[in-house]
Amino acid sequence: MADLPPSSDRSDDVPPTGDDPFAHRSVMLDEIVELLAPVPSGLYIDATLGGAGHASAVLDARPDLTLLGLDQDDTAIAAASAALARFGSRATSIRRARFDQMTEVLRGATELHTQPVVAVLFDLGVSSPQLDRGERGFSYRTEGPLDMRMDTRRELTADIVVNTYDDGELFRMLARNGEDRHARRIARAIVAARPLTTTTELADVVRDAIPAPARRRGGHPATRSFQAIRIEVNSELQILPGAVDQAIDLLVTGGRCLALTFHSGEDRIVKQRFLHAESGGCTCPQGLPCVCGAIRAVKLLKRGGWTPSAGEQEHNRRSASARLRGVEKLAIGGAP
User: Fold this and answer.
1) pLDDT given for residue 69 in this prediction
2) What's the confidence (pLDDT) of residue 10?
3) pLDDT of residue 293
4) Residue 334 pLDDT exceeds 70
5) Strand 323-329 and strand 251-261: pairing?
6) 10 Å Cβ neighbour count for 37?
7) CA 135 to chain centre
8) Contact 151, 235 (CB under 8 A)
9) By the 8 A CB rule, do 219 and 321 touch?
10) How many CB atoms lie within 10 A of CB 304?
């Protein structure tokens, strides 16, 4: 399959309403529940808990699973805790932590030590509640401060990136995280326009830096730049490889790791780590028997992964760039 478009919107396009501060529609919910149906009884780690949409559905379908939920957003933690209260003791282990800290968190969760890890889910990217609240600074559509932190305890903000990185640093960051062919023009325009203080100011600068013909194609001209800055602020691509490796290491035989991505960079990392685990890091020439001693850790559930149905994409446009990949842990000692 071709690379995913560089969109990283994790949920639906409907702003939260009513009393729920983290309301959203979970992408590929039915597929995820179905893929986790065969795992053994034990502990399910939701590494990106959000509003607990996936977690609630999985726990409903599998009364024999207990949840460890992780999220670095305190608003998400509060919303998920309320949503999961009906599951009682099965869903009391919710921690404010990044997903690359799952091994550390699990070691400290003494109430879970006796349970085998049978499932890990990553739902990557930014969620609708984060995008739709201007004060979080994630969206070019709504005026807000240049923030973009998923964890507000972090020191690095979009303001620091935009107003202190030199044009070379900005170019490399925009090209790497946003895959934008106009990255150099945008970097120079940002430096020339400093200081920038709001998301709408930044969006205008980015838009004006892109040639008019390119602005007329695709979505909003600032989409890639905002995505790139958000990824930089939250170290999203840097921490993902180690987190996927941790998840695979934690699983018991028959356990499954699923990763839902919305950005081509995320998807490449997940694909690479899954393939590495599938081969055991085998360095032998392709097509020849393995003699290097590599130990295969997982099998792919589907080569290439899954994408949302046409119906889901029609009703939830933010799901259009999603791809779901999964692996199942093999018994120790299998050879590639």
Assistant:
1) 98
2) 47
3) 84
4) no
5) antiparallel
6) 11
7) 21
8) no
9) no
10) 10
Per-residue 3-state assignment (H helix, E strand, C coil) for the chain: CCCCCCCCECCCCCCCCCCCCCCCCCCCHHHHHHHHCCCCCEEEEECCCCCCHHHHHHHHHCCCEEEEEEECCHHHHHHHHHHCHHHHHHHCEEEECCHHHHHHHHHHCHHHCCCCEEEEEEECCECHHHHCCHHHCCCCCCCCECCCCCCCCCCCCHHHHHHHCCHHHHHHHHHHHHCCCCHHHHHHHHHHHCCCCEHHHHHHHHHHHCCHHHHCCCCCCCHHHHHHHHHHHHCHHHHHHHHHHHHHHHEEEEEEEEEEECCHHHHHHHHHHHHHHHHCCCCCCCCCCCCCCCCCCEEECCCCCECCCHHHHHHCHHHCCCEEEEEEECCCCCCC
Identity at 73, one-letter amino acid code:
D
Model confidence, pTM: 0.90
- Determine the average pLDDT of the residues in 286-294: 84
Q: What domains are defined for the chain?
A: 29-128+236-329 (3.40.50.150), 141-234 (1.10.150.170)
Tens-digit pLDDT profile for residues 62-109: 999 999 999 999 999 999 999 999 999 999 999 999 999 999 999 999
CA distance 149 to 206: 20
CA distance 261 to 227: 14
Question: What mean pLDDT is reported for the chain?
Answer: 90
* The predicted structure's pLDDT at residue 11: 38
Residue 19's contacts (CB-CB under 8 Å, 6 or more residues apart) are: none
Asked if residues 330 and 295 have their Cβ atoms less than 8 Å apart, the reply is: no
Amino acid at 121: L
Q: What is the CA radius of gyration of the chain?
A: 20
Q: What angle do CA 39, 44, 49 make, to 5 degrees?
A: 135
